[in-house]
Amino acid sequence: MIRKLIRKVLELPSGMAKGRTKPKVIPVSQHGVRRDQLSSAALRVTNRLQEAGFSAYVVGGAVRDLLLDVSPKDFDVATNATPEQVHHLFRRSRIIGRRFRIVHVMMGPETIEVTTFRGGGIDDLNETGRIMADNTFGSQEEDAHRRDFTVNALFYDPSDESIIDYHHGVKDLKARRLVMIGQPARRYQEDPVRMLRAVRLAAKLGFEIDEDTRRPIRAHAHLLQKEPPARLFDEMLKLLMSGHAYACLRKLRDEGLSRGVFPLLDAVMADDGDDRFLQLGLESTDARIRADKPVSVGFLLATLLWGQVNRRWQELIAQDEKSLHALLQAISDVEAEQDNDFAIPRRFSVTMREIWTLQARFDGRSGQRPYRFMEQPRFRAAYDFFALRAEVGEVPRELVQWWEDFQRGDAQDRESLISDAKNSGEAEPQKKRRRRRSPRRRAPGEGSGGSE
Ligand code: ATP
Ligand code: MG
Question: Are 310 and 339 a contacting pair, CB within 8 Å?
Answer without folding.
Answer: no
